[in-house]
Amino acid sequence: MPLKNTSNQIENDEIGIFDNPVGVLGAGSFGTAVANILAEKSNVILYARNPDKVANINSTRISSKQKLKDNITVVYDLEFVANSCNVIFPIVSSAGFRDLITNIAPYLKPYHILIHGTKGLDNHVPSGVTIDEFNPLSREHVKTMSEVIMEETSVLRVGCLAGPNLAKEIAEKQPAASVVASHFDEVVNIGQKLLKNEHFLIYGSNDLIGIELCGVLKNIIAIGAGMIAGLGHGENAKSLLISRGIVEMVQLGKSLGGNPNAFLGLAGIGDLVATCSSKLSRNFTVGFRLASGETLKEILSSMDEVAEGIKTIEIINTLAKTYKVRCPITETLHKIMHGEMTVKEANSYLMKFPFRAEVDFL
Amino acid sequence: MTLQGNRKNKVKYSEVVPSMEKWPIVQLSKNRKAFVEHISNESFNNFLQNSRSRSIREELETTVYREKLRVKGNPWKVDPVDDRSYWKKIQQQLSESQNLNPEEAKESEEKLLKEIIERYSEEIAGNFKKTSYRFAKRFITFGFARLLNAARVKGILALFSRQLDLDDKINLVGYPEHIRKLAEKGTVVMVPTHFSNLDSILIGWIIQFLGLPPFIYGAGLNLFNIKIIAYFINSLGAYKVDRRKKNPIYLETLRTYSTEALRKGCHSLFFPGGTRSRSGKIEKALKLGLLSTTIEAQRINYQQNANSAAKIFIVPVVINYHFTLEAPVLINDYLKLKGQERYYVENDEFSSSYKIATFLLKFFTKGSNISVTLGKGMDVLGNYVDDEGNSLDHHGNVVDPIDYFITNGEVTVDKQREQEYVRILGKRIIEEFHIHNEVFASHLVAYTAFRIQMRKNPKLDLYSLLRLSEEDLILDYEDFKDVFKKLRKRLYKLNKKGKVGIAENLQRKADEAIRHGIKNVGMYHAKRPLVINKENEIRILDMNTLYYYHNRLEGYALEKYL
Q1: Which uninterrupted H or E stretch holds B107?
Q2: Which residues of A touch B400 (CB under 8 A)?
Q3: Quick check: A140 contacting B, CB < 8 Å?
Q4: pLDDT, tens digit, for every residue of A48-86?
Q5: What is the model's pLDDT at position A115?
Q6: Domain range annotation of chain A
Q7: Can you say whether the dihedral through the CA atoms of B174, B180, B184, B190 is positive or negative?
Q8: Among A248, B259, B294, B558, fewest CB within 10 Å belongs to which?
Q9: Is A216-352 a CATH 3.40.720.10 domain?
């Protein structure tokens, strides 16, 4: 599939960063939004998960309700993506992440740079291993996406993209910003160069795990925020949840290997405020509908994209016990999801919870 | 693989490179002058290129200041006679150049920088000589064998017996043939754990036993204070490292020396932990300075020769003793340091020839078995390599390390990236140390006894625990055996997963293994850590050394299984 000599492709010297096209794995709403941002500066190859979807996108040039830029090529061929691109952005749900990476692993080389945009955790207990009181669920089994990449491939230059990025607003070219985090300055710089444009600002960070955890943990709080909205509570209640939520995120983040500083930035508070205030957020919607009386099963069967927060609550609820971290919001949401508590009961439970210090991590 | 056995089926290794002329180290010493000049130029360029926050003048001023302080406060016999006058002269020239116009000043500063670097390069560079290498090698092997026989085989005539060699005493485990193959394919860098002063001698012997050409290694300049030692060290391929000089100009020159020697194909030896482990723990954090020269050298090789570049292999080595002669001193240092004692003076047991001689004599007459594990070779990113030197990623697929240095299709220089790679390599080496550690019965009895004490006194901190009174230091045998077996079971599990090695003496029946362990743990200390009497009563005599030997098994999360 030649990329040059088509009138739609951007000429190499105009790009000035990379001769090669940039890859995006996953044509969901965020994957598509990122592909469009990248396409402003580079030629992009977008991988979608099945041939039908690829055919569909190619004929309509619309992916996840967003119009695709002309210099994006949509394919169903991981080998082609790996061979054509030096920089690849995997942006799929955490549930499908490890499989995807395992499938592309044979074609990846240590010269590749991977920057993922997935805000979830991977729960991987090998067959034959049982989780019990002697071998509780721990960081040995629960991995961030960057850790999955390093486990499954020979790629070391890994980064992540996190921040308040509601896909619909980005598609409308409203002003927004995001963080690219990596242990490698090189990855941060390349991420910035590729993504930055006049309506999209990129900050850099070296705290990869911290930034990843921000994106992961805020989804829990977003579900809570949706519930509060669903109950018809106002702004006081919401800001109470957000500020207690950030404390809980920091405590959890610390126990999982993150640095508190990350949580105070764009990927932490920034993303939290955005997701907790917007009906565009899937996680918010889950909470909202739970509070309106729907069951989790009903909600899940009617959503076409994954709300990461649900899986994250399951994992974090167990992990918190292993690491002996109190996380009342997560615990309560877990109970609601499993029908052990109603939203109303949870509301009054949390209002009576004996919080001591307001902020004790700075 | 065990190399112990009777004399007839002993393994003897041939020389990997039979012709001495072809040894990189011989090539290097032949062209010593040119090499020193090359080092100076490279260091000078590196120093100018590495962007720092301080100007050259500032660097020069601090260096002169610190060097003058050193000359005055801590002079050594080995220091050049003109040390004092030299630094005075530099200081003068530096202050004179201050009044020049900027361009001339810059020129003068660079000239001074170059001159200092040249002086350092000359000092650091080794003085390897073929003839004295041969002599030293024979002398040492012969001498050790004599001492050993005298100690083991009774009677004065035994001095002339050829019954025992050093290899009877040293249990060589791991991948010797693999390492020999790697030494033919590329440059080998051995990175051993460091518990005793004996380690360097031991490694030196292992290298020649394996038939490898001599390795270069950084030896403390203080060792060169003693002429006879200096002779041996020089002839065995050492270069000089002065721990008193910590200024950036010196450190850059030292790094460049190591990098360039690696690039010339000189096999090298680093103790990545820096100094001996004071606590008895396997190294947890490594000194990354010298280690980073392996990555830099590899990258430069790739820049210059792309896919045909010579490869550098990292070989972790783990040394195990039942008994570390200097354990009491080391653990005391450690406890003092941890106890926040502000003024801590490192004492140097090797300050005179006499002390070294006594040390060696004690070791050979008293030492018990030693095991040395040669780990699998790795590339500079910590990927295992096969016998052909191909790197394999953790799924066993071949990777080409050049790809780690490539951005957008080209090998690029990125210091921050390489810093990250050193961190990754360091982590891998520590992992390998734990994997290749051979647990002795003596380590496990020490661990068991100390942990039982901790369990009995859950409220006490380390320092109070170490000061328990005598009547609290008796352990019930059955209880001890119970815990010992539980922990051993866990070690077997780890062993099955390839996470640790288990020595033969620990695999015996529990009672026997415990007896063997207690008999051997720290066996020649004035105060034994642990003893057992006929009534099977176990008694702790020295909590400090017990703690030291216990520490050897830190890092395996055994405490969870108590």
Answers
A1: helix B102-124
A2: 109-110
A3: no
A4: 989 999 999 999 999 998 999 999 999 999 999 999 999
A5: 98
A6: 12-206, 216-352
A7: positive
A8: B558
A9: no
**Residue ranges per structural domain of chain B:** 24-124, 127-434, 438-561
Query: Which residue of chain B has the CA closest to A108?
Result: B399
Chain A nearest C-alpha distance from B392 (Å): 9
Sign of CA dihedral B198, B199, B201, B202: positive
Q: What angle do CA B31, B23, B140 make, to 5 degrees?
A: 105
pLDDT in tens, A62-71: 999 899 999 9
Which 180-199 residues of chain A touch chain B by CB within 8 A?
A: 183-186
pLDDT greater than 70 at residue B2: no
Name which of B206, B199, B231 is nearest B128 in CA terms.
B231
The residue type found at B168 is D
pLDDT higher than threshold 80 for residue B324: no
The fold adopted by the segment(s) B127-434 is Glycerol-3-phosphate (1)-acyltransferase (3.40.1130)
A12-206 and A216-352 agree in CATH topology: no
What's the DSSP call for residue A7?
A: T
Mean pLDDT score across all residues of chain A: 89
What's the pTM? 0.88
Q: Does A105 touch chain B (CB under 8 A)?
A: yes
Q: Which residue has the tokens 């992961």?
A: A216
CATH class of A12-206: alpha beta
Q: What angle do CA A3, A68, A182 make, to 5 degrees?
A: 80
pLDDT at B366 over 70: no
The interface pTM score, or ipTM, of the predicted complex is: 0.88
Residues of B with CB under 8 A from a CB of A: 381, 383, 393-395, 397, 399-401, 403-404, 406-409, 414, 416-417, 420-421, 424
CA distance A327 to chain B (A): 25
